[in-house]
Structure prediction request, 473 residues.
Amino acid sequence: MLTQLSGVDASFLYLETGRSFGHVNSILVFDRPDDPSFDPHAEYRSRMERAVADFLPLRRRLVEVPFGLDHPYWAEDPEFDLDFHIRHVAVPMPGGRAALDALVARLIGRPLDRSKPLWEAYVIEGLENDQFAIFTKMHHATIDGAAGAMLTQQLFAEDAVVDVRDDPPPMPDADPLPSPSEVFGRAMFDLARRPRRMLKFQRRFASELFRVGRSADDRRQLRGTLPGVPRTPFNHTITPNRRFTWRSISLGDVKAVKSSLGCTVNDVVMAMCAGALREYLIEHEALPDDPLVAMIPVSIRTGEEEDPWTNRVSSIFAAIPTDESDALERVKAIGVTMQESKHRFDLLPADLIVEVASLAPGRLALQAARIATNPRVAESSVQPANVTISNVPGPRDLLRLGDAPARHFVPVSTVVDGQGLNITVQSYRDTLDLGLVSCRELVPDLDHLADLHIEEFERLAALADVEVVPTGQ
Prediction:
């Protein structure tokens, strides 16, 4: 059965270039159990063999519309091959952090094969401390961060829904892929219905604008502009090459700091990032006078979606006080700017953006994406943000692969032209894992920037009179 991608889903395909890739990723780091016969690859493959029958996003592939006249469709892959998607690798001895980071950096710098379901998984052995990892790479067109966390929870939770019977369930029968003429006919039918949907959208949008317009404060908020987005060393055209690294801090320590300072966990995380970026730019003699602007992804899931595996994500744009020299003042400033940005975001329903993206014809959306990803545009135009910073709530319960408990759940995001740095923070049990991704040429010293984040958190903890607990990563 054909299912058309939403406009938001398709946009992650259109924005993909030879330098910028649309997949999002994660790393689960496991402690190997005492059982000498434990085989991480065999255990993971067995689990996935049972999961693919129940999780449609793992089996569906793209079907393009002839001439790109409309957004592509999903169809079940009649030639699905699990062994194509699951790979088994090892890092060189002694298997330290740098070796894992380098491997992941190479893997995220390669596009996914669009003739197959858009995901890959790597079972990575040879890590120090008798650990192994599972690196998962899935295209954003297939799934968003919140849905990805939900999928991970269902696959690896101690009470996982995946059946552990000796015999895996039979794979559902998949119809042959439709012919180009069949896809073209379906697309023409969908396009014929679009004007009616557009009229309905226009009425709703006008109604929302009228509601906001009745309040002078809301009008000012809706028109409110962020400070000018300044240029930094990482706000240029990117290359396909990546750097990746990660760090961990205690979630309990973060909560203790937020309680002492009278703010939120997110305020502490954002202030940590602002302080680290400020110090990094000072060291490079590149600190702008104006504050940097962060793009902050926001899930707009309600839990009532008909298709839980489609993208339900929007963004908040907020100034972060990299122009403030005092760490405690940065925490206060973050609280104010985040409240203002969230209020501005709440003025119009976020699903309006999702809806208008679906109404744009596929060819028009593709042409707009090609213009936006032109290297000359990235260098000459004003970017909407300097950096992406995301703080994602992850699983609170233990994740396992057989008898192997997961120690870390590390987010690995993506970068785009004009924004060669991404900082994503994810909680897992009592830990916050920070995943940093950059263009290799724009931020070659990413490890140092990661260390600056830890130093900034320790500075905040000292000001809050909180003793930092080592995470044992």
